[in-house]
Amino acid sequence: MKKITTLLLLLLCLPSAASATRIKDIASFDGVRDNQLVGYGLVVGLNGSGDSDQTKFPVQTLTNLLERSGVTIRRSDITVKNLAAVMVTATLPPMAKQGSRIDVLVSSMGDAKSLAGGTLVMTPLKGADGQVYAVAQGAVSTSSFSYGGQAASTQKNHPTAGRVPEGALVERELPYALADRSQLRLNLNQPDFTTASRITAAINRSFQAPIAVSTDPGSVTLTIPDNYQGNTVEFAAVLEGLEVQPDMPAKVVLNERTGTVVMGSAVRISTVAVAHGNLTLTIKETPQVSQPAPFSRRGDTVVVPRTSIKVDEEKGGGLIVLKEGANIGDVVKALNAIGVTPRDLIGILQAIKAAGAMQGELSII
Description:
With 365 residues, the protein is of the alpha+beta class. It contains six helices and 25 strands. The strands form nine sheets. Strands 3-4-5-10-7-6 form a six-stranded antiparallel β-barrel.
């Protein structure tokens, strides 16, 4: 038998039945969500690696900044290369309080070569509603370098994007009141009828009352019990700690660019016969040069091409019968019997799906 691929060995180690998972890991409360923030700013203090004169808007921004600081200067007199215009993005977590800090991501907008060593000047971060929710400022960390001369250069990682750890202060809180609510709603990360039904059953069994109702495969409506009225946080904490076994669809994901194959535990393959072989084509060029003798008065140098082609086809054992798999382990063992690489396995799985022998969805990314 050929060498078993590392990927399929990992799949063999998967348990046949999924273990229980906490509700907080597969669902979240309605309204408790992240919010995206964005802002435009300047990074200063660069060592000549900032935007060039061809990028106009950083100079205009610097002019406006100096005017607000009481310094009047003409735009045409500014020829600096130590600043760069950047787009600043951040994620405002739920329940973030005023004064708490969040990380920000800084990305160059112009033709700057590197942001290493720069400092982000105070930048307001706005939400989708146009309101300022945080203000960012601090030293930019890129974890990279980029150096070079006229004939050669070297670079590590990505020098035109970096982070400012805890570089933004939250200035505005998002309103979300839990204390006065009589109902909550759980939103599943992966909508599924079976998972929603199991969550409902687990909650009602734990609280010994029909407080949960599955309204659709993506959400569960909860009625807060009387003994938890006014103490919604404790109710949510108890609820999130309950464990259920989430269901998952039978799905195979193929990535043809990287040769990655991922199979869900519910995938089944009916009995099917498969033959697989490799074709190797070798083309070798060995040109020959014919030239006249030394000191001869006539004759030309001629290059005569010589091409040899060799075709090798792997000798296989004919058709191999893959028996019906009762679980993911049986499916993996059957596919391992062919002894193919993950990239060959992609073509085999596509052919099995086309033959109607795969009980599951095939997704190619």
